Amino acid sequence: MSHAIRFIASKGNKATSAGSVSLACHVKPGASAKREGINSVTDDGVELCVSAQAKEGEANKAVQKLIAEVRTVHLPPT
Length: 78
Fold this sequence. Notes:
Layout: E1 5-9, E2 19-23, E3 25-28, E4 37-41, E5 46-49, H1 58-69
Parallel strand pairs: 3-5
Antiparallel strand pairs: 1-2, 4-5
């Protein structure tokens, strides 16, 4: 089973770098503005819709902007 969100611990100085987060994303470019955003989070991935087209890096930039705007992630209790 793969995981949509994984924390990767730092091998170096923990005071300067806590690690990184890996997101498995399924991106749907060219979506309507109403559908833009995070649609679902499952064990397999995060489904994102962006209105930008998949050309010349436009959709990738839109995904980066969308993820940067997310301030709080609510996780279900384990």
